[in-house]
Design goal:
The chain has helices at residues 2-5, 22-38, 42-54, 72-95, 106-118, 123-135, 139-148, 155-158, 163-189, 193-202, 211-214, 241-250, 256-260, 282-292, 326-332, 366-369, 439-443, 499-506, and strands at 207-209, 233-236, 271-273, 302-311, 318-321, 340-347, 355-358, 374-377, 384-388, 392-395, 407-416, 459-461, 464-466, 470-472, 493-494. It is α+β, with helices and mostly antiparallel strands. Helix 4 packs antiparallel against helix 5 (106-118). It is globular.
Length: 510
């Protein structure tokens, strides 16, 4: 979270050469440190931040404050927060896809705590602390920190000439993000419904996922046998153990897949596979198995697949969306969905988020969509979920109760009824050809021998029906003062139910 709101303060004037006060000199060093950080000179930035702080001991002769020179405690707080962000970035880089431990991020947390203690309106410090508390499953502490990040600074601060540069800019950046996270936590926990509605009104939200949906973040999976055959089906014991083991290893947190694809910093990408070609690796064997058990075997003409990973309890779910053929949409504006979408839960499923499938199509009007129901699938490791490829779906966030969070790892497969797509290209993007020069792709080979792929008897697991997916939010005048923060907008809260319009806007077609 810190990355999204960092370094709002910038050098705003070029001072004339003269004898500087200690405060002015410290501010110059602070900005030099920020410039070094922006240039990627992290060690130099650290040294300058520490130099800035060391020259401002308690009781020093600081000099007058001005529009560019804030009081000492605000400058010290900004330095401490910047050091916290550096240490957090280093901890994340060191952890990679592995678990970010509390010890590896302890120094970052200490800096954020010192920053907020030094200056209680250090909004980005509170926001970073809130994220760390949420990730550690301390939701009560997270809510306290988010609330601090939403509080309006007192008039004694806002009336000062330095307030706009050093306080209000960060407040205006952090407050909507903190408010969104509060609404999300209130929804997950099923608490403070009035406060949640008040927050959503500030974003102009008119519809939110209903309490019936959010209840599945706190409930146990349904038991027994499915009483009917809904279009959403969950199966266990479909994947032979040897195949499941190979796949789990091939996409483990330490796998070269995540680094070689640039997964954490790259947009959507997937890989194409024609089911008419014999499988040459374990993913393609999995796809053939998924087709065999799909109920539409004869209709499948092409497939694509991709992978996702998250630390359980350390994410805010997966955005509500439709699966579609991206290149056709961007080339012609035509929306094509797969016949069926398939989710393969490899690890972390049973403590991870619930998959929600809404009985809502992209062309549904708001009147129709507002009355739709859906299904909640509580996944299990090794289970496989099927649902119609033209339905809205997403993943709810989960609060992990584990002392050692595990990686939620999923493989996604789209089963297409057409193969009239653009020819797959080598660069990563939608329906990319499988690379031939990467370690991760080589690790998928060879495919398992037939003796390691015995016939399986999939067992159907129940999915929970949801009566009403969307809940109307009491409306306020206008759209509210804040846009929904796009960097964390999971579309659990929306201004309208016209998902087709959202989709076209997302792809620059409207």
């Amino acid at each position: 979270m810190a990355k999204k709101v960092r370094r709002v303060v910038r050098r705003v004037v070029k001072r004339k050469r003269r004898v500087l006060s200690k405060g002015e000199e410290a501010v110059d060093i602070f900005f030099d440190a920020q410039d070094a950080l922006e240039a990627g000179e992290v060690e130099e930035a650290k040294e300058k931040f520490i130099e800035c702080m060391d020259m401002l001991p308690e009781g020093c002769t600081y000099g007058e404050v001005s529009g560019t020179v804030p009081p000492r405690e605000i400058l010290i707080s900004s330095v401490l927060n910047s050091l916290g962000e550096i240490h957090m970035d280093e901890a994340l880089a060191e952890a990679g896809q592995e678990k970010l431990t509390s010890s590896s991020s302890a120094s970052a947390k200490e800096y954020f705590e010192r920053a907020t203690k030094t200056f209680s309106s250090c909004y980005n410090g509170w926001l970073s602390l809130a994220g760390m508390c949420r990730d550690a499953n301390d939701v009560q502490a997270a809510m306290v920190c988010y609330l601090h990040a939403t509080r309006t600074p007192p008039a004694t601060i806002t009336s000062q000439p330095w307030a706009e540069t050093w306080v209000l800019g960060m407040y205006n950046t952090c407050r909507p993000i903190a408010l969104y996270h509060l609404a999300l936590l209130y929804s997950q926990l099923g608490v403070k419904s009035t406060e949640r509605s008040d927050i959503l009104q500030l974003f102009g939200v008119r519809y939110a996922l209903s309490p019936a949906v959010w209840s599945h973040t706190r409930s146990k999976p349904p038991t027994g046998h499915p009483s009917s055959s809904p279009p959403v089906a969950l199966y266990q014991d479909m994947i032979p153990p040897a195949l499941l083991s190979r796949l789990t290893k091939a996409f483990s947190p330490s796998s070269p897949y995540w680094a070689e694809t640039g997964y954490s910093a790259r947009g959507y990408f997937s890989f194409f596979y024609s089911p008419t070609v014999p499988p040459c690796n374990v993913v393609e064997q999995l796809i053939q198995l998924a087709i065999k058990n799909s109920g539409i075997r004869e209709q499948v003409r092409a497939t694509e697949w991709w992978a996702h990973t998250r630390l359980v309890g350390r994410d805010i779910g997966h955005q509500m969306h439709f699966d579609m053929e991206e290149k056709t949409l961007e080339a012609t504006g035509e929306i094509i969905h797969p016949l069926k979408s398939v989710v393969v839960y490899l690890t972390g499923a049973e403590t991870g988020g619930v998959t929600v499938v809404v009985d809502q199509k992209v062309e549904d009007t708001e009147k129709v969509a507002g009355k739709t129901g859906g299904w909640a699938a509580h996944p299990k490791d090794g289970a496989v979920l099927y649902f119609p490829g033209n339905r809205l779906h997403g993943v709810l966030p989960a609060c992990s109760t584990l002392d050692t969070p595990v990686q939620r790892l999923t493989l996604l497969i789209a089963l297409w009824g057409t193969n009239k797509f653009s020819k797959p290209k080598g660069e990563l993007g939608p329906q990319t050809a499988l690379p031939t020069d990467t370690k991760w792709a080589a690790a998928l080979k060879p495919p398992l021998k037939k003796k390691s792929l015995p016939s399986t008897q999939p067992v159907s697991l129940p999915v929970a029906p949801i009566g009403a997916v969307w809940d109307a939010v009491p409306s306020a005048e206008g759209d509210g003062p804040y846009p929904l923060p796009e960097s964390i907008n999971q579309r659990f809260f929306v201004r309208d139910l016209d998902f087709k319009k959202m989709l076209l806007v997302d792809h620059g077609l409207q």
